Amino acid sequence: MSFISKNFEIIPKDSARIRAVSSVLLYGYGTFTTIAVYNGKPFQWELHLQRLKNATEKLNIKFSIEGERLKQEVLKLIEKNKIENGRVRITIFEEEIEGLWRENEVRQTSVLITTATAKTLTEEFRLNISTSKVNSTSLLKGIKSCNYLENLLALQLARSGGFDEAVRLNERGEVTSACMANLFWITDDTVFTPSLDTGCLDGTTRNFVINLCRELGLEVYTAEANLEELLSSDEVFLTSAGIGIKSVRRISDTYFDSRKTSQIKLEFLKKIATL
Questions:
Q1: Is the pLDDT of residue 107 over 90?
Q2: pTM of the model
Q3: Which helix (H) or strand (E) covers residue 266, if one does?
Q4: How far apart are CA 121 and CA 117, in angstroms?
């Protein structure tokens, strides 16, 4: 990535500046969405745009999102950085907010757009079980806020133990997600994924895969399931804009098949190839 866009101006990435005393730096005051890029195009654009609008409203971020203008800037940056298949992240954040280390009377909200090439990942993931609990009653429930340190630390702990990711439970012991991805499991040809009530993120790829599974004739249910239900399933897989669909080979010492997951992934790849 050579270029970024800040406030609708494409500049060299090393030229970008954020105020030292800013609300995003001091408090993580902002929201973001990460969009998969296939064949040079942002995947599920309208859903990501709606996510940004919902999050800025919930976080009381004073910013009017002009969808078409934002999309055109994203497309320009994708072309500038020559991203054929990869990711684009849009971050909307506060650089100034009234009453908190304020220097100016005018509130300042910024938009940062960055890109990256596709991740190089193993075909099948190994997961452990995180001790970090998801708070299903959090004020940030369902929001991709810039306060992502807890997710990152949980991921680093998993990787330091030789795993690729980790299963996170909520305060009630319900299966919620992985650190950076949504979670699915298959039992007797029925597909399950945690319900939004568990505190999991309403991922755009998650929704795409739910609909795809139903097109394939599979029953899909959202569930408030415990760890035992997950570990007794036949197959487990993860989804996100960054990884697409990834089979889970094992969780701790429990191993899983990937037969049905491979079929779902194949259909997913066929779909995105037509974009």
A1: no
A2: 0.92
A3: helix 259-273
A4: 12
